[in-house]
Amino acid sequence: EVQMVESGGGLVQPGGSLRLSCATSGFSFSSYWMSWVRQAPGKGLEWVANIKQDGSEIYYVDSVKGRFTISRDTGKSSLYLQMNRLRVEDTAVYYCARGGNWWDQWGHGTLVTVPS
Amino acid sequence: SYELTQPPSVSVSPGQSARITCSGDALPKRYAYWYQQRSGQAPVLVMYEDNKRPSGIPERFSGSSSGTMATLTISGTQVEDEADYYCYSTDSSGDRRVFGGGTKLTVL
Predict the structure, then answer these.
(1) How far is B74 from chain A (nearest CA, A)?
(2) For testing contact with chain B, the best of A3, A34, A48, A103 (most B CBs within 10 A)
């Protein structure tokens, strides 16, 4: 059974940092692109970043470029998102998702709150 | 910037067919994908590459795409199908990954 469990969310002041983690199991992590997708409270879905199997290709949505860094650890079958210089508009549930350009498995998400 | 347009809401009676549309200029060239999100839960893929149904998704879910519009159809809609549905695709270059605004399906 595929399992993807996010952690690391919480309350952080504007300008602060947070590191999200996604621990996976039940599939060959090294064979898949991986992504982060977020959803602001009461809003729709927004793709944030993705990373190729070997980390050689990485892409970000424009709004997080230069502030967020996606990474992965094949040995730990884990995906990460380092978020720096956080803004109020980064408040969202962050989902770990399997795939690069579309996603067939999702974690349950972790909430990041940046208060105004 | 590229946009996918969905109706904000669709209502259907149990047992009837529900059709949710998604309009985008690049859809003639790009696949559409559909995600179901029940209240408080993570999204679930219900259709990929316009009309392919993932394993475990009931046969009452079907997809189609023609021109600039993709459609998710739920035949014999059940109460458990009540959820938000999001279409997803990319722009013509494949660089921009975009979700539609979502359609709230009410089954009553």
Answers:
(1) 19
(2) A103
Helix (H, G, I), strand (E, B) or coil at A88: helix
Distance CA A106, CA B43 (A): 7
Q: Best interface-test mutation with A: which of B41, B97, B103 has the largest number of A CBs within 10 A?
A: B97
Given CA atoms B55, B56, B59, B63 in this order, what sign does their dihedral have? Answer: negative
Q: How far off is chain A from B42, nearest CA to CA, in Å?
A: 5
- Taking the alpha carbons at both ends of chain B, their separation in whole angstroms is 36
* Interface touch B45/A107, C-beta < 8 Å: no
pLDDT attached to residue A56: 97
Tens of pLDDT, residue by residue over A35-59, are: 999 999 999 999 999 999 999 999 9
A69 vs A10: CA distance, rounded Å: 18
Any idea which residue has 């309009």 for tokens?
A: B23
CA–CA distances in Å: residue B94 to residues A82, B2, B91, B98, B106: 25, 11, 5, 10, 32
Average pLDDT rounded to a whole number, residues B65-71: 97
What does the angle CA B88 – CA B94 – CA B98 come to, to the nearest 5 degrees? 30
Q: How far apart are CA A108 and CA A95, in angstroms?
A: 7
